[in-house]
Specification:
The chain is of the alpha+beta class. The chain contains 22 helices and 20 strands. Strand 4, helix 2 and strand 5 form a beta-alpha-beta unit. Helix 4 crosses helix 5, helix 15 packs across helix 16 and helix 16 packs across helix 17.
Amino acid sequence: LEHMGRLDFQVKVRGYRIELGEIEANLARHPSVGQCVVIVREDSPGDPRIVAYVVPRGEGVKARDAKEFLKRTLPDYMVPHHFVELGEIPLLPNGKVDRKRLPHPSATAARGPVLAARTDMELMVVRTMQQVLSLPSVGVDENFFSLGGHSLLAAQLAARLSRETGEHVPMRLILTHPTVEQLARALEHGALDQARSKRPSLRRLAGQSEAPLTLMQESMRFAEELYPGRVLYNTPSAHRLAGALDLQAFRAAFGKMVDRQAALRTQIVRRGDGFVQEVLPHLDVELPLEDLSGLAAEAREAELMQRLQQRIDDPIAIASAPLFRVGLYRLSPTEHVFFFMAHHIIWDGWSFDLMYEEMSELYAAEVEKRESRLAKPSHSLVDFSVWFGEWLASEDCADQLGYWKKKYAAMPGTALVPTDRPRRAGGSASADTEWVNLDEQITRRLHAIASQQGCTLNTVVLSLYALVLAELVGDGKVVLGVPVRGRVSQEFDPVMGFFVNVVPTVIPQAFELSFESYIGRVQQELTHALSHQDVPLERLLQEPEFDRFARGAPVYQSMFSFQDVRMRPRHWGPLQHSSLPVMQKGSPAELGLWLLEWDNGLSGGITYDSALFDAASIRLLRDRLQGLALRAVAGPGQSLRQLIESPGSDRDDL
């Protein structure tokens, strides 16, 4: 590889493709860098670190400045974990870098002086945060998100702290206490004890095969009964698999996933006056193969998409398992498409992440004729449903409910988003999607703004979308419905099922604020909302403060969903995986923006009720969002008024 040239030298670090030459080329542009070389070290198994060795020009290179400089042009995962200053780069006689003489990065070489831990709890939090962020040192006064943390890493930090403390550390605690000092103080002062005392304990109900529906599930079941034949709750996905597929092994892997995950063996049945979810002890599922390889190349993809759409448009009856559709399509001996679509009542976005992980490992194990390395989930959706019913009567629920009642008691009705056609009772069964893309460069620059403001990319994009909606409704306040994972304990992290709740998040607009200050305000509102995220929206609507919303006014004007999928496995065993975009023609919300973060940027769509909106109107909304994103990264210090009044075709057209 050395002889092939470093500019083409790619490695994988924690699942990401890292181009060392690209890091070096960008770092060399820093005015204080004379020479540099970037390598990957793995001093402990499974813990690779990117290290930049720098010969400074002038007074020296500050690691924090170099990190911020690189974040403007590189994704977070390509920013070196350590920076080491050298007097010169050690070379071999042939002029190549002598890697053996590159010194081990120490904490003092990697970053400047930091405020050290003063208590045992701070020391534990510091060590855990260092592991998650892959940093040699973390000061107790430094912000987790300013150091490169994002939502996925925050979830990892919460899980690791849970293991260290032996208690469930909710992710919201990290959102509200992002520094080591704040987080350690919260843990020391009984934040976990206080939360635990107000919540029922989680039990594993071994052998129990039935449980009541959660309020969220019951809402979907009722909608299915009220409007039979709609496909509002189909959740389709299509997966392109490149390589020689072992059909028998793939079918066996899928069958083992069904055996592992109770949600995939669940059906919704009547018991007395109500409905329950029933888990079958075993379920034989066929995985049919349709061979399209005999078609001409130009007709193959069209035929595939037509067949997929037919399956997507087919409603799933929830009374009889399986509550999913599945199939394989052969396009050539080395290219197949795997189709999977579950009913939302047993499935959510995190379940897709779990499917990626499980199929990747289970198929590899079948091909290699070994046992899989996956641990069987200790809990199931049945355990959650029973626990959740008890939680609704708990003091913790009452506290969270009190927050929302107070929040909405003094709030006037939410303004309606203008539509191309009048709204009608009962909503619509039709929906469509306009695709949204923000390229890698724009996404990197939005990441840099997020890092500077100590928040996540999710918050920055949500802020932009709320600003667009404020223009549409002509109101200084926007309310977004933000889905949350709803897995209240780390025991449910490996469990497929429907756990999601929707949190109504109020975003006030103040057009004299700078965009940077506005992001801070949005982060504050989002943090408060996520700190009270467990109360189902269906429960809120039972309260008098929400009565006007039950009578037609919207609780929120639009959904906003953001998911970081960069950690999804790119290979299922020896097969290379890529996603094939598919969408159902139904949506329970009038309007919604959903985005996925990939290595090459953000992609997703604006899903809308096509009985209310014209496609042309939604394209204008999309263009405005993308236009504001471009202006924001060019000048994040400008006021919101300057941002929205800047000339451009997207503003004029809207």
